[in-house]
Design a protein that fits this description.
The protein is mainly α and about 100 residues long. The chain has helices spanning about 5, 20-35, 40-60, 70-85, 85-105, and strands spanning about 10, 15-20, 65-70.
């Protein structure tokens, strides 16, 4: 984790505040890719997850504020995914939508 990320916290949708955890981004992107376009290519799905996570970490570390809303992070993930692979960006949004629906029930 980059030093500037140590002080960052995330405001979740339910209002809870948690410490920054890059692994959550990597896991979500990997799951979206492996359940979508790269179903039979886990190494490629992992590569995309790693690359997107690194770019998002850099962008978030450069923000001047310490509390980041989850939507800000999710929007940045989608933006970076669109640069890497538009199909995985679509898969990620579908995955997050499904996850949000499951959390509400």
């Amino acid at each position: 984790m980059q030093p500037k990320l140590i002080n960052k916290v995330v405001i979740k949708r339910n209002g809870h505040v948690v410490d920054w955890d890059s692994f959550r981004i990597q896991t979500a992107v990997f799951k979206a890719a492996i359940n979508g376009k790269y179903k039979d290519k886990p190494l490629h799905a992992n590569m995309i997850a790693n690359n997107v996570t690194k770019v998002v970490e850099k962008v978030i570390a450069e923000l001047s504020f310490e509390k980041i809303e989850i939507e800000t992070i999710q929007n940045q993930v989608v933006k970076q995914l669109n640069d890497f692979d538009k199909d995985v960006a679509r898969d990620f949004l579908a995955y997050k939508t499904k996850q949000n629906i499951e959390q509400r029930h």
